[in-house]
User: Fold this.
Amino acid sequence: MNGPSAAQLEKARLLLLHEGATGSAGECATAAGRIYDKLHAHLDPLLGAAGVQALLVRSAKLTQPQFSFLEVAVVEDSTKLRERLQAQDPAVATGSAAALFATFFALVTTFIGERLTTQILRRAWPTIEEPSMETRR
Assistant:
């Protein structure tokens, strides 16, 4: 995988804003926790809880070179992710959360396809206007 596309990164940023990440690291952390929980709720029936968790772990590993604090243990649950993001500068918290979720979207798209990924994300966030989730650059 070459990393997330610009559209996937933009989608992650939009979701963070939609969930309330408007400035502080605490707001970003809370928004990221909500996204984490919604992704689990909507993808667990399709991929299984272990499958979703494995993709989150892989996403953390892929983003760790850029954001070293995103260790595998951070994505064990939404509480740990929130705690780690709250300890960061607001810009770093937002950038790292966006990178983590965009990478997750790229991995999910690789496994289940763009169409199904888009349908699941629309089900989780029906009021968001969606940029294309395509993985092409």
